[in-house]
Amino acid sequence: MQWSVMTWNVRFNNPADGMNAWPKRSALVAELLHRTRPSLLGLQEVLPSMQMEIQAMLPDYACFGQPRRANDEGCPLFYRLSDFEVVRQETFWLSETPQSVGSVSWNASLPRICTWGLLESRRAPHLRLAVFNTHLDHVSELARERGVALILDVMQEHRGHVQAMILMGDFNATPASRVVQVVESTNQSGHCDLRPALRSAYPLRKDDLFEGTFHGFHPESGTKEPMIDYLFVSSQITVESAVVVRDQFQGRYPSDHYPLLADLAL
After folding, report:
1. Which of 42, 167, 171, 235 could serve as a FRET partner for 76 with CA atoms 20 to 30 Å apart?
2. Would you list the domain boundaries of the chain?
3. Domain 2-265 class?
4. pLDDT tens digits along 141-177
């Protein structure tokens, strides 16, 4: 089985962004999604009104996921209806009380969540994937570390019920950070045996500039773009290709992050 997966922070609708505010770039988001058409799509910073618009852009997809609190950002997962059906889906909070809506712990600046789904392939009904999408805190390192540890624990709970697992999202952390290293060490800790899709696709490439995902709408500034968005896959998955999608439209970018797109096989 082959399919494509994309993770993308699409930037919330902030009027202070001026020409880059959501109403002036939503058509660019639609164009990029129509170009790439991933089988699975994990988005971050999606307000409920934005989620409705994106769903309208993708009539042959469905989505699920709760916002972190009423009328606030979410991490929805979109899936192509011809590829998957949802067996189970859930949103939990990255806190000491994961089922408490809006809960905050570990000095996080805001409520942080993870949306996950148990998906069954329509082409291979015996095949089930567990897919997790998150957005870690941008201030508290402790919240990032505890948050990802909680996600890994939940993934471990469902490991025996699926053939493969995927973790994606905006980690607000660079590859050298402890939080990313914790995820990459899961193959040694007995957890979910996760590895980054980009590195799996290009194991010998050392130029980490090409991996940069955040540009703040100004990639031409000359500053090095940090890698803070990730797509991790379990060992059962072969990464056939992976790329940071740097598409622009007449000099404009659909978001302040580049999406990360991978073609996978099982």
Report:
1. 235
2. 2-265
3. alpha beta
4. 999 999 999 999 999 999 989 999 999 999 999 999 9
